[in-house]
């Protein structure tokens, strides 16, 4: 993983290049106050004070005496990404803001320097760009957030050939090891007996890639109990309802929900949030083979509901159903699950905006407000009960896919809701976990979308 800690340091007055921020309202006034050599440099670099623009400004002493002016959307309210482009473009060295604390912008400064170099080393990467901050009390939290996002990116970016169920479970164990949770990886006959939907989805996988369920508990038993669940489909071929090849290209990311849940759990533990945490990650590969579960099969879930298989490519909701049932048995105060669940959510909201479903308005509002506060937005979609008709089965309690092809994100969430007891506050985040095009601080590839919103909600409620 990228080492983010050295990139954000307390300002002890050491030599550093100054970063001055301007926006559309302050640019003209700032420029008029500059000496001629600075105004000429600004003009030569065609700097106009727009967001993500920067210009190098000459000093009055020697060649190393230079500063930087950056354009941001609003100098009064810095977003996490407003310094990210600068962190990508500036040369190695130390930098400090001319005025005020870096605040939320420190996160983007660090994440702009994220590198995934497991298979290919960056050829032109600059050395570390270190941001000195006048608010050292916020360093640890910012670094923890960057590490959480980096963990999601690393896991999602890793190809399925190197991150099967066993490897994902091992990666989770390694990520949680410093916090010493009570951790169990259910496998073999345990999965067959206690997680029948997980077992069915994963039973066609090759030897060594069998399904498992990772379960971890952490925290004081007297504290409020919360459950975090993540979909861990290491690769999704679609099963016998096989995907076209174009739809399989990104299916290494179908464990993105598990990566989010793991990263959120790690944030809870690293921050010593006063909760009793229950983490559940069902992990499978949805493969094609003679042992694969079939369209038309009827499976009995952990909860006891029978499920007719309308589509083997609707497998994520099956494994989440058993995980939700397990978590609900312990009667948590709230449950939140993350999943790369439906293409329908991406059609409706695009890649950057996770769909939020919740049976509890207060929980949904806390997630929406938390996401807005930390610039990790969500959009709430309805658990429209009339659409439950689409999941009816003639021979079982419910169909996993139903007919008609409409409202796919809603019907998937309605399916999950059947495994959540009445009165238990629950939220489901249908996240893409991927940036299809690079933006400042967010390279193309695996991305944490909805993670920081979930963390903001938990801090708001329990911090």
TrEMBL record:
PROSITE patterns: CYTOSOL_AP. Transmembrane segments: none annotated. GO terms for biological process: proteolysis. GO terms for molecular function: manganese ion binding; metalloaminopeptidase activity. GO terms for cellular component: cytoplasm. Residues 311-318 form the Cytosol aminopeptidase domain. InterPro entries: Leucine_aapep/pepB, Macro_dom-like, Peptidase_M17_C, Peptidase_M17_N_1. Keywords: Aminopeptidase, Hydrolase, Manganese, Protease. PANTHER family: LEUCINE AMINOPEPTIDASE-RELATED, PEPTIDASE B. Belongs to the peptidase M17 family. This is Aminopeptidase.
